[in-house]
Design goal:
5-stranded antiparallel β-sheet; alpha/beta; 11 strands; 6-stranded mixed β-sheet
Length: 249
């Protein structure tokens, strides 16, 4: 199967603090990788390294077979920008432009990044907003939306750039529990459509149900990985068992 993301010996340090300590994994086309683990284990940092919000300290990242960074050395800036566009990151805190309408939040990245015309960008935006059940909110501003609606706009914005892989950084952590379900339903629908995704989440049942493969991280390393049912329901490592003990009661 085609690898959409390949990570080899990834390392990330902030000063003397080693956040990611030489981890390796791959994500095949159409798969969903679930990443679970306690806060501070390095889960979100992985996504930030893939999307280049953070520069790596060492290791290799390839997206769709194209090296973004190889053995700690980055490709040239032009190629780097092209490769980064193959992934889209959905933040936990939405990161919408507050002074832009819903429609503008989804059209502006297409115009600036993909160099689309206004008409073409609007057509794509409205198609995706309709799919997200947000077409009637196109003229609203983020402050007029619920948290769940704002997160759906951020997913629509990411999809509008037609990435090969979507990265979700705890997409429900900023939401009230009653709004969590609507975002999980959207991600499940994308999984059924075989969208390649990497999902960092604290929702254990969701991770088990949606993922093709699960990684449990702690202390910047992969402690355990494997089939979702095996990792979540029958973990082998003591650290994984302890982390999942409340969920598995």
């Amino acid at each position: 199967m085609e690898d959409i993301i390949t990570v080899e010996n990834l390392q990330k340090s902030f000063g003397e603090l080693n956040i990611i300590k030489g981890i390796s994994f791959s994500v095949h086309k159409g798969e969903v990788l679930g990443i679970i683990g306690p806060s501070g284990s390095g889960k979100s940092t992985i996504l930030r390294c893939i999307s280049q919000l953070e520069e790596v300290s060492g290791g290799t990242i390839k997206i769709c077979g194209n090296p973004l960074v190889e053995n700690g050395v980055y490709v040239n800036k032009k190629d780097r920008q092209k490769i980064i566009l193959k992934s889209g990151l959905v933040f936990q805190n939405f990161n919408l432009f507050p002074h832009y309408s819903v429609l503008q939040n989804v059209t502006e990245p297409q115009i600036r990044v993909l160099k689309k015309s206004d008409a073409e960008a609007k057509k794509t935006a409205m198609e995706i907003l309709d799919r997200m059940a947000l077409a009637e909110k196109c003229d609203s501003y983020p402050c007029q939306l619920s948290g769940g609606q704002q997160q759906r706009v951020s997913i629509a914005r990411a999809l509008a750039l037609k990435p090969e892989v979507l990265l979700f950084d705890e997409p429900t952590s900023a939401l009230d529990p009653e709004l969590t379900g609507e975002i999980l339903a959207v991600i499940k629908e994308l999984a059924l459509e075989k969208m390649t995704m990497v999902v960092v989440t604290h929702e254990m049942a969701f991770a088990r149900d949606i993922s093709s493969h699960i990684i449990f991280m702690d202390g910047g390393v992969i402690v355990e990985e494997g089939e979702p049912e095996a990792v979540i329901n029958n973990p082998q490592k003591e650290r994984t068992k302890l982390f999942l003990s409340r969920f598995n009661k």
